Amino acid sequence: MNPYTNLSEKSFWRSAIADLNIFDIHDLWDPKFAFDRHHNVSTFGSCFAQHFSRALITRGYNWYNAEPGPAAFSPAVLKKYGYGVFSARTGNIYTVRAFKQWLMWAFGKKRVPSEFWQSDGRFFDPFRPTIFAGGFDSAEDVVKHRKATLAAVKRAVMDSDRLVFTLGLTEAWENRRTGVTYAMCPGTVAGRFDADLHRFKNFTFAEIGKDLEDVLGMLRKANRDLRILLTVSPVPLTATASSKHVLVATTHSKSVLRAVAGTVVQDNPTVDYFPSYEIVATTPFKGIFYAPNARSVTGAGVDFVMDSFFSCLSAKFGDEEAEEPCGSLSKRRLSLENVQKQHDESDDDVCDDAMLGSFGR
Amino acid sequence: MTNPTTTYAMTRCWARSEGKQSLKKVCICGNSHIAALKFALRDRTYVNPQLDFQFWGLPAKKFRTIGYRDGALTTSDARMMREVTGRDSPELELGEYDAIVFHGCEITLTHWLSSIKTVFEDLSEIPDSFLNEGLRSCFEPLHVSQLIRQVTENHEIPVFVSPNPFVSVANKRFKKLRVSVAELERFQRGIALAIEELNGIYLSQPKETIKRCCFTDQKFSDDAQILRGNTDRRRRKNEHNHMNQKYGVSVLAKIVRHLNDMPSKIKTHA
């Protein structure tokens, strides 16, 4: 007798992976807490977080929009101007530091900077430069709109039952003088790059871990009942400023983020991790959920991830619509051929960092 | 702001008919809101011997059954159309008309304005691009948008578009709505742009009927009549969406002013 003797099938590579059709791989996630249809669920983070909001809405869950736009405007126009993508109009939040920044401003723990960027007579918010297509009319409008979004971030945290945060990147750009972290490198979408003022930052495991603990502390203080779900985006970097090969930089980045998430959720009953990264990016799934560019996640991949999410919840907490063992899709079996045919990228996503690719040769 | 080429073509058409001594024919197409205009003419509250107005309309969702085919407005509910317009034919040949006005047609300005003001205390907070694109997105899905496009693509007559009236001041649902003159102007410009993109001409609600910038004066709402039939069935007292014959007179007068102004407009463009 030894500790391995009575472990379940999922503990062993052969029974859990090697002996199975990839679509029968299951039990990837043992949720710590339920997501009920009456729960307010907020979502923030990198591009991949948008899939959660869409899937929640499609399945009749209560995705919480703390900053809705004019109801009469079409969804397409609202999305173009940053509404209905995340629970507040923060735009993509790629780093934990950036999310911590938003929360510190929203809860009054740090003064909101008055910085704005200007390009061609238009004004942009450095912390969400693509939030208003074409920019704002004035610096005052940048500040006014940011104020409204900060109020929405606060509302989202305080009124939600669940919050999903997708960790995207370790790389970012900072202001040397003020220490603020930008959403994008100045000069890429808007603004002007100044090597004396702006510096590259590749956050370390320790820094991200500290930032995440600070984030969780603020969330807990604001809303004791809030449960947080972390995920790591499986989308590789469009570009790296680390001087390493982008594949190496991506692996480093995702590894650090995955390790931080794993460490933080250990022994923490109010924080959980959902393995969307593992489903899309790891070898057992053979990369079939990536588009030909080996970067974008296909619609089939997004569906598979979200189906896994809901089926694992159903398997553990019960749901009248529960179908399959957690994560597997044998009833709606996707053949390898069908998945590979569905090369459509999930191009509905609002992805600021994707535009960095235009600077490549 | 209307496309100059379109205006020139429409005005030549109108000017040609100006030269004729015969009556000029104007088609007014819409939903239940055309009642105010229809009964103003029927009861001779408004009289213009130079113009022959013909109505083509159906109330509520039935309006969406009005179509366009081969130069004519059509209906799939000839029976109700006969009740409303007195015409037996299920079609109205637009070739016989010198102008067309789409009136009402679910262009619910109060609702759109209110949805914007619910989010933004002051419209100056949002750039023109967002406001105008948003208003276009309100307008595009409407059935009337398709009709306007079809008529302007196939006919050279002026196509006027006149919205639902603002709700009356006594309404409770929107009583907290507050709009400044500057805000209303920006809003109306956005609506005008959306209509001009379809080569239509926007006729905003007559100024004399508006109270507190974004409501209709109550005197234009009391005793509003119901469209169907030729009887004098009145709407209930707490109905604040539909207007009476006095309102109809104001709108008709504005239509006529714009029609009469058309030759002078061409001088500006030339």
Instruction: Identify the overall geometry of chain A.
Output: globular
Structural class of chain A: alpha/beta
> What's the gyration radius of chain B in Å?
18 Å
Round the mean pLDDT of chain A to the nearest integer and report it: 90
In the sheet with the most strands of chain B, the strands line up as 2-1-6-7-8
Specify the helix fraction band of chain B. Answer: 40-55%
SS class of chain B: alpha/beta
Poorly predicted tracts of residues of chain B: 264-270
Helix content bin of chain A? 25-40%
Please give the number of β-strands of chain B: 10
Count of extended strands of chain A? 10
Structural features, described:
The complex is a heterodimer of chains A (361) and B (270). Chain A is of the alpha/beta class and 361 residues long. Chain A has helices at residues 13-18, 49-58, 75-80, 96-106, 139-159, 205-222, 246-265, 276-281, 299-317, 336-341; strands at 40-45, 62-63, 117-119, 122-124, 162-167, 171-175, 181-182, 198-202, 227-232, 271-273. Chain A has ten helices and ten strands. In chain A, the strands form three sheets. Chain A has a five-stranded parallel β-sheet with strand order 2-1-5-9-10, sandwiched between helices. A three-stranded antiparallel β-sheet of chain A has the order 7-6-8, with helices on one face. In chain A, β6 and β7 form a beta hairpin. In chain A, α4 packs parallel to α6 (205-222). The longest helix of chain A has 21 residues, at 139-159. Chain A is globular. Chain B has helices spanning 4-19, 35-42, 78-85, 109-119, 128-139, 143-154, 181-196, 245-269, and strands at 24-30, 51-57, 67-69, 72-74, 91-93, 99-104, 159-163, 201-202, 210-211, 215-216. Chain B is globular. Mean pLDDT of chain B is 88; it is low at 264-270. Chain A binds chain B through residues 68-74, 76-78, 80-81, 132-137, 141, 144-145, and chain B through 111-112, 115-116, 118-120, 125-127, 129-130, 133-134, 136-138, 140-141.
